[in-house]
Amino acid sequence: MTPTIRTERLLLEPYDHGDEETFVVLVGDEAVNRYVGDGALSEQDARSLFLRVFPVYEENRFDVWAVREDGRHIGHAEIKPSKTIEGHELVYVLAESAWGRGLGTELAAAIVAYGFGTLGLDRVYATVHEDNAASLHTLGKIGFVHDRDVSNEDGHVTRVLVAHRDRAGEGTLPPRDQHHG
Asked: Residue 170 burial by CB count (10 A; 0-12/13-18/19+): exposed, middle or buried?
């Protein structure tokens, strides 16, 4: 079961059905999703994706969180197995209102700590569009290093980054509190 994780400023908790509208806005935002997968989703696709979160919980497939600051839903985060990279991948997006305040670093560090501590992983991966300098910088601050590049059909390159348990620590902010809920 996906646990609730608290950091200094953030609360990561499983989604509830009341999060649908803010989720739709988040994944439909062009700026937020500029470097994510196929980009911003249409309202219909966003609603469909939101409804697919609940079977993930029911089947205990992987961990997925609504990210909140001061009670407001400001982001989305996951750590999940990926056949593409043959390991567990960190995935997260934050609303534009949350940018530039270190919340991405805090969020990513908490999930990586969860991956190493609770899930017992030796490595956590992240895939980042080559032009996404902010995410590359954020992940570098918490110990991610370049693993390889993947060329995509559309011509851009995805950087595959990895954080190793044995090299983690400095710069990684552990979650303040974790409990299963």
From this structure: exposed
